[in-house]
Specification:
Pfam families: G_glu_transpept. This is Gamma-glutamyltransferase family protein. GO terms for molecular function: transferase activity. Keywords: Transferase. By secondary structure, this protein is of the alpha+beta class. It folds into 2 domains: about 25-250 and about 355-395, no CATH class; about 250-355 and about 435-515, Gamma-glutamyltranspeptidase, large (L) subunit, C-terminal domain (Serum Albumin, Chain A, Domain 1). Helices cover about 35% and strands about 20% of the residues. It is built from 19 helices and 21 strands. Strand 19 (about 510-515) and strand 20 (about 520-525) form a beta hairpin. Helix 2 packs parallel to helix 6, helix 6 (about 140-150) runs antiparallel to helix 9 and helix 13 crosses helix 14. It is globular and about 60 Å long.
């Protein structure tokens, strides 16, 4: 990929990083260095990704946990592999039960939104299939930080405190008391630079390492999870855990200006990014920072989102296929709706037929695009006593409308927000990328891909560039540093433009590109976080 060597002038003064033997990029320096440690021990990029991911459950616990989900795209041995380690709803839950309890939408916290966690299983299957080092060695840095403690980094400290206030406001010590004991000992969260440790995390990670995650799904940890939900009247059971296994899936792609952009298929929302790019590839862009370019990007994302929110769910329950939504004829139909004024998005009729992200690469050509989450700050707010396991709340994504494809049902996977990205060209890897944070993820994927391919920005500059995000109808939000003259020009095109007070909801991304001739790696990390690129 051709790109310039300059930083993006509006935001960051970080510079793109280079290496040839290995690289790990993520939102927390200790986690990135843990991955690099595996490479230096003789491991590969898969080992590095698992080590980094496990470490992130300790050093960035507000964003992800042992009780969360994972998606990964792995390039190895000349092929791209996709792993969906998201879990289904409990087998005993039903739409009627939830509605009878007085809910008209799924709650964010508590027992109801908890689905089967896939993260521990993802580490185990990735290690077994592609890793080189034993899982016990790969998880050792995470265990060490949990046991001995680590100094909390600045951005994470602020989100940790926000999560504390949200959970404290629920005022239910019986249900959330274990969270308070683990994450707010003494009635407060750790300050930036303060040491925090959790022996429960360490013991759980050691059990997962020693049993290849069997203890989490069919052993002692499964029993403790089951006991907690039985005690409090929840639905998740040891039978749900025992029945779970991650799914290997074929990634989906569109060709965008000669590059193949890859995402995971539904139930993830990566399809939205591909639909938007499929629309945009039929349009011309003469420069990056113009009202016309931004307007076209926003309109394409709005149209893609309207379809994604209408159709994406567990693939077994989708009314249309990903292939139908990505057809050239449907992209042309949606593209024709883009005019000079902001439109009100609505789904079309296609032809029938809390998150962390990391990127890892080694000197052998292996590359991993890896995303892990429990959704929001601290997921459901439930911690299994004595384990440090914070349970996710992915079930909050289900609809309670019986006519919606993503309606709650037993043993069903919900519409999922976390998405890893990958790019290839002529069947060779260009690299991995991702931007975490809820609904902005496919929008930021589109912006990052276009920054790199259309506007030739290097990995760091692609991440530094000011972002916008579509919220609803004709409303968009722009970052504080977004140029005012562009915001005003978009308003004149009919967009309702709001300026955010901070960049907290505009995503945190990582990129690693590989030069196809020399093998040199080029990496960028997110300036909106405590990001770090570890290089070798």
């Amino acid at each position: 990929m051709q790109y310039d060597g300059l930083y993006y002038p509006y935001y960051s003064r970080r510079m793109v990083q280079y290496a040839n033997r290995g690289m790990v990029s993520t939102t927390q320096p200790l986690a990135a260095e843990a991955g690099l440690e595996m490479l230096k021990r003789g491991g590969n990029a898969i080992d590095a990704a698992i080590a980094t991911a496990a470490c992130l459950t300790v050093v960035e616990p507000n964003s992800n946990s042992i009780g969360g989900d994972t998606f990964a795209l792995v390039w190895t041995q000349g092929k791209l592999h996709g792993l969906n380690a998201s879990g289904p709803s409990p087998g005993s839950i039903s739409l009627d039960q939830v509605r009878a309890a007085g809910h008209d939408k799924m709650p964010t916290y508590g027992l109801l939104p908890v689905t089967v966690p896939g993260t521990p299983a993802s580490w185990a299957v990735l290690s077994e299939r592609f890793g080189r080092l034993p899982l016990s060695e790969v998880l050792a840095p995470a265990i060490r930080y949990a046991e001995e403690g680590f100094p909390v980094s600045p951005t994470i400290s602020s989100y940790w405190k926000l999560g504390y206030h949200n959970i404290k406001a629920l005022n239910d010590d019986a249900l959330y008391g274990s969270w308070m004991e683990v994450f707010a000992p003494g009635g407060r969260t750790p300050h930036s630079g303060e040491l925090w440790r959790s022996s429960g995390h360490a013991q759980t990670l050691r059990s997962i390492a020693d049993t290849n995650a069997e203890s989490f799904y069919r052993g002692e940890l499964a029993e403790r999870i089951d006991a907690f939900f039985r005690e409090h009247g929840g639905y998740l059971s040891k039978e749900d855990l025992a029945a779970y296994s991650p799914e290997w899936m074929e990634p989906i792609s569109v060709n965008y200006r000669g590059y193949d952009v890859w995402e995971m298929p539904p139930n993830g929302q990566g399809l939205i990014a591909l639909m938007a790019l499929n629309i945009l590839k039929g349009l011309e862009f003469n420069a990056k920072d113009t009202p016309e370019t931004l307007h076209k990007q926003i309109e394409a994302v709005k149209l893609a989102y309207a379809d994604g929110l209408r159709y994406i769910t567990d693939p077994r329950n989708m009314e249309v296929t990903a292939e139908e939504l990505l057809s050239e004829s449907y992209a042309a139909q949606r593209r024709s709706l883009i005019g000079t004024e902001a439109l009100m998005p609505a789904p079309g009729e296609p032809p029938k037929g809390g998150t962390v992200y990391l990127a890892a690469a080694d000197g052998e050509g292996n590359m991993v695009s890896f995303i892990q989450s429990h959704s929001g700050d601290f997921g459901s707010g439930l911690v299994i006593p004595g384990t440090g396991i914070c349970m996710q709340n992915r079930g909050a994504g289900f609809s309670l409308d019986p006519d919606h494809p993503n309606v709650l049902a037993p043993r069903k996977k919900t519409y999922h927000t976390i998405i890893p990205g990958f790019i290839t060209k002529d069947d060779r890897p260009v690299g991995c990328f991702g931007v975490m944070c809820g609904s902005i993820q496919p929008q930021a994927h589109v912006q990052v891909v276009m920054n790199a391919i259309d506007f030739h920005l290097n990995p760091q500059a692609s991440l530094d560039a000011p972002r916008w995000r579509w919220l609803r109808e004709k409303t968009i939000e722009v970052e504080p540093q977004f140029p005012d003259h562009l915001a005003q020009a978009l308003a004149r095109k009919g967009h309702n433009v709001q300026r955010a007070l901070d960049s907290g909801m505009f995503g945190r991304g990582q990129i690693i590109w590989r030069d196809p001739e020399t093998g040199v790696l080029a990496g960028g990390t997110e300036p909106r976080a405590d990001g770090h690129v570890a290089v070798w």
